[in-house]
Amino acid sequence: MLKSIAVLTSGGDSPGMNAATRAVVRTAIYEGVRVFGINNGYQGMIQDDIHELNSRSVSDIIQRGGTFLGTARSEEFKTEAGRQKALENLRKHGIEGLVIIGGDGSLTGGALLSKMGNIPIVGLPGTIDNDVWGTDYTIGADTAVNTILDAINKLRDTASSHRRIIVIEVMGRTSGWLAMMAGIAGGAEYVLVPEAKFNLDEICKDLKSSYKDGRRYSIVVVAEGAGSGIEIGKIIGEKTGIDTRVSVLGHIQRGGSPSVEDRLKASILGERAALAVISGISNVVFGFNAGKVVSIDLFDSVNNTKTLDPELVRLARVLA
Ligand code: ADP
Predict the structure, then answer these.
(1) Is the CB of 104 within 6 Å of ligand 1?
(2) CA gap 61, 40 in Å, rounded
(3) Mean pLDDT within 93-103
(4) Least buried of 139, 176, 241, 286, by fewest C-beta within 10 Å?
């Protein structure tokens, strides 16, 4: 059993990271293990921004979005020298195991660190994009999709009043998960994602004829990786002659108080991660599959790419 572990959040922040950190900290303390918080992800590990936490350090954070530990992107960590420095700082504090909460990039960094040092590493998938291989759940994705849904509902009101087409650009540079889930749940007419081909000319033709037949409004959800919402909105407006407005949701999608699902699952995963790392288990990522906690090999997770379920793409088309 390890005597001392650390936890960090890295990459893009996501709602529920705090709940996961809290669970890691409180589980360690419950088990009689010392626990350190590393501020600002890998950057803080390199800069020795590492502090011991107690149970009260994580009071009043389960309901907050973002991450109280801070997060950062660190170029230095991508170098071997940077990772070496980070490892030395861990050793200096007597830290024997590490829980990393972050997206695909952060977990890739963790896998590289694991190859260099003899320190158990356990990852938790923390990203709104839901694009970590091996788990159908990532911490923060549910809250983000609900934020987008709320925006779609509001934009629908104004779209229907003015007989407009509304194009909503949402996050997802390589993954259309957020767009697809929010699009289906929000009753969007079109969901454009990087994983599926679409023909804008055909879409414009369809929109024009459906407005002629009396349609009052249309919602088009665009994942940023499928194209620029502004550009797509401009083309749709020009080709259909219908009043088209674009809304780029931006960073609002990352924020907000985490949903029940994100709080609960982050808490469950945080406990599992802490217990695993304390017992010396290494190179695993904990996630959920079909409602059950699963442990995924860290290297498998970072070496594979999660794909969007084609059934969802089909369903969005059927229901449009
Ligand atoms: P996310 O974890 O949300 O996918 P990033 O891709 O920005 O976010 O990764 C966060 C951090 O993880 C990076 O700033 C870097 O320090 C580290 N990281 C990402 N990719 C690598 C890599 N290939 N090698 C080493 N470290 C990496």
Answers:
(1) yes
(2) 17
(3) 98
(4) 241
